[in-house]
Design brief:
This protein has about 550 residues and is of the alpha+beta class. Helix content is about 60%, strand content about 15%. The chain has 16 helices and twelve strands. Strands 5, 6, 7, 8, 9 and 10 form a six-stranded antiparallel β-sheet that branches. A hairpin with a 5-residue loop joins β1 (about 45-50) and β2.
């Protein structure tokens, strides 16, 4: 036993076991998030039943089972329900009923006491709407301009409904494109005209120059007004076409409801769908989650603006932090005089890595946004004042704050890489006649690039998951547009953005509909983890390529 302990084998097994436990925990956590989040997109069956309320009345229920739990019968009796004395446990079910515009609450708990047998009516439909959440009910008729063109008993009813829903979705997308792209471009040009004229006034242009400019601006404005009239007429015609169709439906209690097809995103009959049909629907919903915009207070729709904002912010942050961190590390390692001052600087850099991120956010808001941004507005954007351009939180300040937050990581990693370069390589380069600068930039720095990439990988991993500082310097609940569009300068660093981390916080803790937001929190969290993994894998691939390229030189 003593020989076995001295051999070190127990410590090897202990380390291996610890690594295995960590891997199981990580995989288990990601698996739990994936099951609870991505399971939300599977089309669940719609069940119909009757339940008994506290006053003994029976109520018809139609919806999706979300989850169930067992509670003590004594607790249920205390709430006023009639439960047999011999029964000790009661099962209750959380049912998503939808119909928020009718029932006020779309998630409700129901006890199995007095509950009828569950049925799955084949003609029960689920309608995903742009407002008021899902609708659960039964179809009655399809109307065009108020006239019935098909009833639920017709053989071609569902085909006609799906065709007209697809038509409405296509019209809605076309309208959204016109409003965001065509009208947005016209509004951007009109705003530029206003700012150019305001700039001439601030520059003190004489009356002749102002009269000439006004004539030019009037001609441009008239041209843009004409373009707007044409585009608006096209949009109004699309709106008229969009209002054509209506679906008449019935809820489970018999109440009649009319739903305009322009408010429908998707209509399905889960109980009539096979496995392969549900798989296709799952892929469609999942793709919508990744590529569409959020709606219904971020509890419906997709997260594409948050994905785009996170990636854009990380890329801009990487462009800023890499040169500053590398140059600072090179100076500290290769040029600065070793002594107590340098040791204090290094300790300060190490301590910066431990400063709470919210402190960086407060500093970014005070220094970057208010001081630097306000100064930039005074110098270069006077015509826009008092409306701020860079004197307000935005993408650039969020990226710059994260660059400052991750700067110590890049500095330390680069210094470690420079210190590992053998002195013989430096001496050999100098012996062959190279200067110190040539040795540094042509020999040492290329060999240290894998360490630089390691620092960048760590910086990306930390920056992509930060939330607290971003709430102060540029991230919002819902951004009206992406920071990248077809208007010059194309990438608008002054615009506010959405972020996956803040989206998780907002949906999880600020949502008015907790049950509807719960699966989206898991799905968004897993998306953020996968995004960080993808960004890190890309950086690791570059690092490994550089490591192989310079391996022979360092051997």
């Amino acid at each position: 036993m003593k020989h076995w302990l001295k051999s070190g084998a127990p410590w090897v097994w202990l380390n291996g076991g610890a690594v295995a436990v960590c891997m199981v925990m990580v995989v288990g956590l990601i698996g739990l998030i994936a099951i609870r989040g991505f399971g939300h997109f599977w089309p669940a069956d719609v069940v119909q039943m009757t339940v008994v309320e506290r006053d003994g009345t029976s109520v018809a229920i139609l919806g999706e089972e979300v989850r169930s739990e067992v509670v003590p019968a004594a607790l249920v009796r205390g709430a006023g329900y009639n439960v047999p004395e011999a029964q000790e446990l009661v099962t209750r079910y959380l049912v998503k009923q939808g119909n928020r515009d009718i029932n006020a609450r779309d998630f409700n708990w129901y006890l199995d006491v007095g509950m009828s047998e569950w049925q799955k009516p084949e003609n029960a439909m689920v309608i995903e709407r742009r407002e008021w959440g899902n609708f659960y009910g039964f179809p009655v008729a399809l109307l065009e301009n108020g006239e019935v063109i098909a009833t639920a008993q017709d053989n071609t009813f569902w085909d006609q409904v799906q065709q007209r829903v697809a038509r409405s979705v296509a019209l809605h997308n076309e309208i959204r494109h016109i409003e965001k792209v065509d009208i947005g471009r016209i509004n951007h040009k009109l705003e530029r005209i206003r700012l150019d004229r305001r700039g001439l006034e601030l520059d003190g242009a004489d009356s002749a120059r102002m009269a000439e400019a006004d004539a030019e601006f009037s001609a441009l404005r008239a041209e843009l007004d004409e373009q707007y009239r044409v585009v608006k007429a096209e949009r109004d015609e699309l709106y008229r076409q969009l209002k054509r169709d209506t679906l008449k439906a019935q809820v489970v209690d018999g109440q009649a409801v009319s739903i305009a097809l322009q408010n429908i995103v998707r209509l399905t009959r889960p109980n009539a769908m096979g496995v392969f049909a549900k798989m296709g629907q799952y892929v469609e919903r999942f793709w919508e989650f990744l590529s569409d915009e959020p709606r219904e207070a971020n509890t419906e729709g997709g997260i594409f603006p948050a994905i785009f904002g996170t990636v854009t912010m990380v890329i801009v942050m990487s462009i800023i932090v890499t040169p500053f961190g590398v140059l600072a590390a090179i100076y500290l390692r290769e040029y600065a005089k070793q002594g107590p001052v340098l040791r204090v600087i290094r300790i300060s850099v190490y301590n910066l890595a431990g400063v709470p991120s919210i402190v960086y956010g407060v500093f970014g808001l005070g220094f970057f946004v208010y001081f630097l941004g306000g100064s930039l507005d005074e110098l270069f954007y006077r015509e826009s004042l008092p409306a701020p351009t860079f004197g307000t939180p935005g993408l650039f300040w969020a990226s710059l704050t994260l660059a400052l937050l991750t700067l110590p990581v890049v500095i330390v990693s680069t210094e470690e890489g420079l210190s590992r370069i053998p002195t013989t390589i430096r001496q050999g380069s100098l012996a062959l006649g190279a200067t110190k600068a040539e040795t540094l930039w042509k020999v040492v720095v290329p060999l240290a690039t894998p360490a630089m990439m390691t620092g960048l990988i760590l910086a990306i991993a930390r920056a992509a998951g930060e939330v607290a500082p971003l709430m102060l310097v540029g991230v919002v609940k819902l951004a009206p547009s992406l920071p990248l569009d077809g208007n010059y300068p194309y990438l608008h660093l002054d615009q506010k953005i959405m972020h996956l981390g803040f989206h998780i916080y907002d949906v999880g803790f600020q949502s008015p509909n907790v049950e509807a937001a719960r699966p989206l929190v898991y799905a968004t969290a897993l998306t953020l983890v996968m995004l960080i993994i993808v960004l890190n894998l890309a950086a690791i691939r570059i690092r490994n390529s550089l490591r192989e390229k310079y391996r022979s030189a360092s051997d």
